[in-house]
Amino acid sequence: MIEIILLYFLTKSIGELAVRKGLPRGRWKLITVMAWILFEITGLIIGMAFFGTGNLYGLLAFGIVCAFGGYLTVKYTLEKKPDENTDEDINRIGTDQLRP
Which partner from 19, 44, 72, 77 sits 20 to 30 angstroms from 27, CA to CA? Predict the structure, then answer.
């Protein structure tokens, strides 16, 4: 349950970052959820391969850490994209500086 609450707040922050970049909010929220699930399943599989199935809580913790890595991957990808230019930015720069 705590994982779902955490994922809600993380996708909310990704949505705000996507809007700031001028990208669709819903698409990036969906990408975040998909990356979270994919990385968590991958983490569980890797955890079972290395540690076995004896410690279920340890495997779940390892899966959550890997899932957070999926969120960080999406966030890093979004942060590398350029910000959307606003009218305020254009007014601050001025049109004289736009001419060669």
Answer: 44
Which conformational region is residue 52 in: left (phi greater than 0), alpha (psi within -120 to 50 degrees), or beta?
left
The DSSP 8-state label assigned to residue 96 in this structure reads G
* Tokens describing residue 73: 């991957």
pLDDT in tens, 56-98: 888 989 999 999 999 999 999 999 998 876 656 556 665 555 5
- Cα–Cα distance for residue pair 59/45, rounded to 1 Å: 9
pTM for the model stands at 0.79
Please answer whether residues 69 and 36 qualify as being in contact, where contact means their C-beta atoms are separated by less than 8 angstroms. no
